[in-house]
Amino acid sequence: MSLSSINASAATLTKNRTEGSVVPSSGMCVTCVDGCIGMCEIGKSAYRGHEVIYPQPFGVITTAGEKEYPVDYSHFNIMGSTVGAYGIEADSDKAIFPAVDLEVIIGHDKGLKFRYPWIIPGLGSTNIAKQNWEGLAIGSALAGTGLTIGENVVGMDPEAVIKNHRVVDTVDLKHRVQLYKDHQRDGYGAIIVQANIEDTRLGVHEYAIEKLGVECVELKWGQGAKSIGGEVKIRDLKRAQMLQERGYIVLPDPSDPVVINAFERGAFKEFERHSRVGMVSEELFAKRIAELRKAGARYISLKTGAYRPADLALAISFASKYELDYLTVDGAGGGTGMSPWRMMNEWGIPAVHLHSLLHNYAKYLADKGRYVPSLILAGGFPWKIIFSRVLLSAHPL
Fold it and tell me: Which of 130, 238, 338, 379 is most solvent-facing, going by the fewest CB within 10 Å?
């Protein structure tokens, strides 16, 4: 149900020799010539190996998948009307655009107030997020919208103090939270701290709640739209060893004398740091929700991705049963700081189809009188869009 891209991309610094004539199913040149030096992804991977797995250059880009789907949100138009009005009196002197109210209120106690109906997604330990945090935090806070601090910020912070595998102090996370809070106005907006399995083991949520006064926390299934852990590249041996000591998977092994010698000789120039994938079970999920509420979390959310329809059903079922404040659902086709390039293009359910499934599942729960959390849609948007339960029932996808 999708159209393959050519087997070359600016994201992998590759191109086809016959750019105007490629095989649709594979993206290879129609005439693949013996002896070609191989500037397509297939050819380049033959002699540059794993470099072509990830988008390049790492650390200064955020990459979006290139696959074209038969239906995506760009194919939808907003249907306007001059007959009557919604949300305001049908009076030409009153129904004017400055009078539009985009405020959204969600949460079990109606305490999460946003002046605009979006949340900036989880921007974590990547260089691109850290280098632009001042503008993101101050702008979001002044605008009264939500901003999510993504995964691995504590684990990647060389100045974080970790004792007995639990965080007791940080520099980076503390700075990110405080910068937002310093510019927050009139109780609008929220700074949200996300956690993956490594963050959970380090006690990041508990630290953020107890020491930094964070009220809103987010659990995460997989890497947004992809059921893998997060990855970054490390070009410093000591830092790679530090991350390994903190519990991350680092490849190749930075503690191996053979690897150390090869790195120092210049045989390779970077390590890969990988996060683990948490394995979902209702018992562990319920236990974690109870722990967060006991720690003092006021609002709890879950982010899931473009996985199997059964996984989406499980996510909204858990969010309903354990009364989470909102559920974020990320469709395929999203962007990232670093994930396998082919996985970004060839993995998961496209956003329109995934969100249609979400609507059906939410309606099923609502029809049975069960609690439906507020829903946040991601994937194919320039930002996350919030749909409250009222909007969901009034305007089905």
Answer: 238
Closest CA to 293 of 215, 220, 221, 370: 215
Cα–Cα distance measured from residue 318 to residue 327, given in angstroms and rounded to the nearest whole number: 10
Distance CA 341, CA 12 (A): 8
Strand boundaries in 91-230, DSSP class E: 104-106, 112-114, 118-123, 146-149, 161-163, 166-169, 190-195, 216-220
Name 273's bridge partners. Answer: 232, 250
Tokens of 323: 């009364």
How far, in Å, CA of 100 to CA of 88, rounded? Answer: 9
Residues contacting residue 104 through CB under 8 Å, at least 6 positions apart: 113, 114, 116, 117, 386, 388
Angle at 101 between CA 376 and CA 140, to 5 degrees: 55
Looking at 322-397, list the stretches that DSSP marks H as alpha helix, in order from N- to C-terminal side.
341-346, 351-367, 389-394
d(CA 141, CA 375): 21
Domain boundaries, the chain: 73-230+275-394, 233-274
Q: What amino acid occupies position 363? A: K
Place of tokens 């092994």: 253
Question: Using one digit for the tens of pLDDT, what is the confidence trace for 325-377?
Answer: 999 998 887 666 677 888 888 888 888 999 999 999 999 999 999 999 999 99
In this predicted model, what pLDDT tens digit does every residue of 19-39 receive, in sequence order? 788 888 888 899 988 888 778
Question: Which letter does DSSP use for residue 344 in this model?
Answer: H
pLDDT, tens digit, 9 for 90 and up, residues 195-222: 998 999 999 999 999 999 999 999 988 7
Q: Look up the pTM and report it.
A: 0.89
